[in-house]
Amino acid sequence: MMSSNQHPSGARTSVVFVHGVRSSGAIWENQLAHVRDAGHEAVAVDLPAHGSRRHARFTMDGAFEALDDAVATLPSGPVALVGLSLGGYTSLAWAARPATTDRLVGVLAAGCTSDPKGKPVRLYRDIAKSVANAAYLARRVTGRVVHPSVHRARLSVPTLRPLRTAPGGADLSSVKITPDQTAEMYRPTWDVVTDALTHLAGRSSIANVRAARVPLWFVNGARDAMRIEEQRHLAAARDGSLVVIPGAGHDVNMEAPSTFNRVLTRALGDFARRA
User: Fold this and answer.
1) Are 73 and 93 in a shared domain?
2) Domain span at 130
């Protein structure tokens, strides 16, 4: 009897995981173990300017190349993409390309149902630019040299305080630069945020959803501010499903890993049945 996660051809669906901004493929450790235990081949990519590709500047073309390379490493057969935030937007854009491989059978897009052409994403890009400027000012004022891999900035977008001392518009009290030689995961500076959002701002995720020819599952944490246009995305999909996970925020795969994994299993089964 064929498994619910098995393609009609007999091959199990392989999975490519795509991370969000200022993280890396390491965020998918739990999900990689989950799908591999179920018999799926899986790989987590590093996008340009992140992880193993930290020395490259982020571009959407570079992100597409990373996905192309990841798919090429997997056995022949069906492939699904699972992306969070920037990774979700990238996955939707990749799926919308006319040249996208016929092996693609579905996309699970998490934390990415606010159209990049809208005001929220542009606002976040401008705030990120201000934080990057503030961080560089702090480095110049203090004379401290901080390696990019340990340069960290903390920002709470909904509670950003009024501007005070930093040129470019950021409150220096919201910026922290902390050297940490024990950090295991490369943490890009806020420059990559402005690069990524600049590339996203010229693209409409709604248009990508309309162009995608495969089933799309949108998965959001109930507390995620980026879910404001989830109904628009769902309505635009030819074949779409929406799951909202209670109690979770933007990083839904890490905040509710067990629930996310159950949803992921359902999505992979759905992709296989519809292939």
Assistant:
1) yes
2) 119-195
Say yes or no to pLDDT of 144 above 80: no
| pLDDT over 70 (residue 195) | no
Residue 5 lies in a domain: no
Q: How many CA atoms lie within 13 A of 90 on its CB side?
A: 31
Average predicted confidence (pLDDT) for the chain: 76
**Residue 208 and residue 259 in one domain:** yes
| Same domain (yes/no): 96, 126 | no
Question: Which of the pair, 54 or 69, is modelled with greater confidence?
Answer: 69
Which pair of structure tokens corresponds to residue 129?
């630019």
pTM comes to 0.73
- CA distances (Å), 240 to each of 145, 169, 212, 214, 274, in order? 48, 40, 10, 9, 12
Give the chain's domain count. Answer: 2
Question: In angstroms, what CA-CA distances link 135 with 83, 145, 190, 253, 258?
Answer: 29, 11, 9, 29, 36
Pairing of strands 240-245, 216-221: parallel
For residues 274 and 6, give the distance between their C-alpha atoms in angstroms, rounded to a whole number. Answer: 11
Give me 140's structure tokens.
Answer: 């110049």
User: Which of 78, 75, 79, 76 lies closest to 18, judged by CA?
Assistant: 79
Considering Cα of 160, then 225, then 196, then 207, what sign does the dihedral take? negative
Alpha helices in the chain (DSSP H): 29-37, 60-73, 86-96, 119-142, 191-201, 205-211, 230-236, 252-255, 257-274
From residue 274, alpha-carbon distances to 10, 51, 215 in Å are 14, 34, 8
